[in-house]
Design brief:
Number of helices: 8
CATH class: Alpha Beta
Strand content: 5-15%
Number of strands: 6
Helix content: 25-40%
Distance between the termini: 33 Å
Number of domains: 1
CATH superfamily: Glycoside hydrolase/deacetylase
């Protein structure tokens, strides 16, 4: 039975509590990678998630593309969100268990425009390494996710400190002006989950590699979250958190 780690980006939305309640009812743990600006707007929703056992991760302050920023601004994006998360755990009366980060768009700071799954060279590699070293200096780490896909290893994702993903639900494409892969409806989102192309980042239905599943906390797709979770459950995954050492 495949393990799956559910990660939810761009929280908190006005629907975050509903998502927390649904996941609790289904006994599905999850990591909410949160934006600092939205945490400032809806701190009580994040505290509600914390008190219900969910992990709040760092998704930058206001979701820029790191490749378009100076390194100092990249650092500030991470640091500012980190401090907000610290205060929320303190308000919740819960020890912050881990420091986990996912960069907006999966942009590791090393390329001019978003290019999926690109190897880094030259100046791009230097920037990526510098960003990885910075988040490490703040106490961030990535647990052993156990992903066994060859493309994951070739791209060095098993060595990075930030969380990447093996499967992107891509429900946000349903409200994009230029949707990729014809993803224009919930039906298309669910149909894509039945595809079997593991080396093309669609391996939900084959092999035994754990899956790092990416979905989002957007109000535009709030009505899709329940059906998406039900579809994932139908795959027979064991939803869990990876083993980790608590932050000091």
């Amino acid at each position: 039975m495949k393990r799956a780690y559910l990660t939810i980006d761009d929280s908190p939305s006005a629907d975050m509590r509903t998502k927390v309640d649904l996941l609790r009812a289904k006994e599905i743990p999850a990591v909410f990678f949160c934006r600092g600006d939205l945490l400032e707007q809806r701190p009580d929703d994040a505290i509600y998630a914390i008190k219900n056992g969910f992990i709040i991760g760092n998704h930058s302050y206001d979701h820029p593309r790191f490749s378009e920023l100076s390194m100092e601004d990249c650092f500030e994006q991470v640091r500012r969100c980190d401090e907000i998360i610290d205060r929320l755990y303190q308000r919740a009366g819960v020890k912050r268990p881990v420091r986990w980060v996912r960069f907006p768009y999966g942009d590791k700071g090393g390329f001019a425009k978003m290019r999926l799954f690109q190897k880094f060279e030259g100046e791009g590699k230097r920037r990526k390494v510098e960003l990885q070293e910075y988040v490490w200096s703040l106490g961030y780490s990535c647990p052993d996710l156990g992903v066994t896909y060859e493309h994951w290893r070739k791209l060095g994702l098993d060595q990075d400190i930030d969380w990447y993903w093996t499967y992107d639900v891509m429900e946000y494409m349903t409200f994009s002006a230029e949707p990729l892969f014809g993803i224009t409806s919930l039906q298309k989102v669910l149909e894509r989950m039945d595809e079997d192309h593991p080396e093309e980042w669609r391996g939900l239905n084959s092999g035994d590699s754990p899956e790092v599943i990416l979905t989002h906390d957007h109000e535009q797709t709030a009505h899709m979250f329940g059906p998406i979770i039900e579809k994932l459950l139908s795959k027979g995954f064991t939803f869990t958190l990876p083993p980790f050492e608590e932050a000091k």
